[in-house]
Every structure is written in C-alpha cells, then in structure tokens.
Amino acid sequence: MTWTCDQVEARLSDYLDGLLTGPERAEFEAHADSCPQCVPLLASVRSLVGEMHAMEEVEVPPRLVYAILDKTLGPRETVTGWQAFLQMIRGMASPKFAYGAASILATFVILASSLGFSVKNPKIADLRPANVYRNAVREVHLVGARGEKYVSDLRVVYEIQSRLRQDDNNLQTTPEEVLPKSMPEKTPGQTDDRKPNQPRQQNRADQISHQLELLAAELPLAGGRSIR
Amino acid sequence: MEQDAQLVQQCLQGDGSAWEELVRRHTRRIFGICYRFTGNRTEAEDLAQDVFLRVYRTLGSYRSAHGGFATWVTSVTRNLLIDHYRRTKRDRVTDSLDDKMAVVENKESAGRRPDEQALLGELSGQLQNALTRLSPELREAVILRDLQQLEYAEIQTVLAVPEGTVKSRINRGRIELARILQQMGVRPA
Q1: What pTM does this model have?
Q2: Where are the domains of chain A?
C-alpha cells in the first residue's frame, strides 16, 4: 500500500532516527523519494537535525557556579588570622602542589648557592644587592676559567698523544743511520768538529726529553697552582 | 554506585564539597537547557540558579532507583521552565506557531543582545530564534532530543508522558521548526 503524505510526515523522525525497517522503510522511501512535497520536507528536516546535533554547547557565564553556591551554601565566610593560614595550608595538601613547591624550592636553593648565599651558614649581608652582584660576577668568572682550563688540558693531552704517535711512526720508518765510509776511524782522545754518531737508544731518549720540554712549556699551571 | 548518587549521599551527610562537585558537573547542561528554552541569557542564569536551589532543598527526595541524578535534575529544570513560561506568557508577543506573525529580522530577536547574536553565529542564532517560536511542549521535546542528545526513554521520564507522545512531539517539533526557518528565509546547509 502506498503511503500518504500524512503518513510520511507522521513517521519522518522514525525514519531519520533509523527506527523504520523492512517493509515500512520501503513504503516510506517509495513515497518520500518521489512526492514533490515530501522530498523538500525530508531534506529540510534532515538538514535541520544535522545542524542541531552539530551546534556548539552554550557558553556558561563564568560566575554562575559561584552564584549557585552562594545561593545554596550561603556566602562563603571570610576567615582571618590563623584560620586563613590553616585553610591555605589545607588547600596546598595535594601531591601536585607538593611536587611543584619542591621543584621551585630546589631551584631557589641552587640559584642562591650559585650566587654565594650559604644555606648552612646564612647571612643577611649575602642578600644585599651589591654582594649578590659581586658573587654572581665571581661565579661567572670562575665557571669561565674552569672551562678554559678544561679545554686547555684537553688540548695538551691531545698534543702529547699526537706527538707520541708521530714519534712511534718515525722510529718505525726511519732507517738506522749509517756511518759514511769516508769518515776516519775515531780513536780515544781524538776530537773533531763533527758530531759523534748517536746510538738508537740515545735518539729515543733525546726525543722523549724534547717531548717533556714541550710538555713543560704547554703546562704553565702544572705546578699544582689553583685558580681560586 | 553511580558517582552522582555517591555525591548526593555525601551531600545529605553535610559535605559541602560534594554539593560543589555536583553543581560543577551539571551547571553547563542545565544552563544550556534553560538558555535554549528561553533564548535569553539573563533569564537562563536566574532559572539555573533556581533549579539548583530547588534541587538542594529537595535533595532528600531523590531516589536513585527512580533513575539517574542527571535525569532527576533535568525534570526539575523542565518543571521550572514550564512554570516560568506560564508566569511570563502574558508578557510575550507570540505564543505558538498558530498565531499569525510577521517574519522578524534576526537582529530583533526577542530578549537577545546584539553581542549574543554575534557570539552564537548566524545560523545558530536563527535556529535559537526559531526555537523560541515553537510551543513549549514541542520546544522542550526538540531541545532534550536534538540539543541535549537524551534517549527517548530518558525524555519520557523527564516529561512524564508515554514514549509515543515523546516521539510525536519530537517529530512535530522538528517539522514545525523546519517550516519556521523556511518562513524566516533560512536554508539549513
């Protein structure tokens, strides 16, 4: 049986909400898809429902909750003195607040220590702006000097290592010096201007002492002097 | 036990923080219903406060066996809205779709400030305007179903009418709302 416009209109929401099934759905669609009055009606209601479902929530007035609480629980009493302090402490008794407070406290302790304020032996004079500035400048210089020394030491170690490596390479590749045949035989007591031939071990010892001289020249602070 | 029901029990034992939690959980929804029904933010604020005041005073009468706390609060809201509507009926220009009325410009929508209109958005504002032109029975059904997304069974409890009546009101409300928007010259997307 073909549905009428009134029947379609009466079951329109059931159709949109998916409550029509089987033959009823087929009959509904058979009419609603072809009737010149029901086609736009179905389209407009379907669109309207979609718009309403997509509407954003209404923004609540910011003070409404407090107004409701005032009306029901009564205006909140203002407490003073120790009661206010205890109420504030109770409000802080949450793990989140405790962790935050501990982090901030640790940050302050670290900053204060770096600015010269001793936690174990606090002095009011350490809080004076001039002292804070002086301590801050001193700490900056100390950090800079320590950094410079560290880099310098690293460079020296690198130099020594590279020279020792070079020295090892030279010893392996340089052939043993051979006395020229034209050189006269040396006898005890005889001296000449030529440098005597140096044995291999002496060459090695001389090179090591040369390295040590270089090391001494590079390490002016190697005597254990402290910067502080 | 439902969390709301648990909070209610704590409230009845004198726990003010439990009541505060209940208020925070339901204020947005109740204010939304009041605003969609009245179309006026000031009236909606006052009515929302009255709702919670009544809920606070009659909290002892709530029974979880009769349904969720949210449904109960919605029922209280609906009753207050209808009472308010009847009290202010004589002050209104139009009552229902049966009255002949001219198409009102969107900017002149009753009870809404221009800044509210801008905030709502054009179509949303026109939709709100059209909602306030529905009869209260159809208006509340459409608000609860399409704006508050309540199930039919829940709406049946709130309105205290049979499910068939709920479906009929929702259907007629949607159709009339679509016709009002058409008369206003608004084409939903």
Answers
A1: 0.59
A2: 1-74, 101-174+199-221
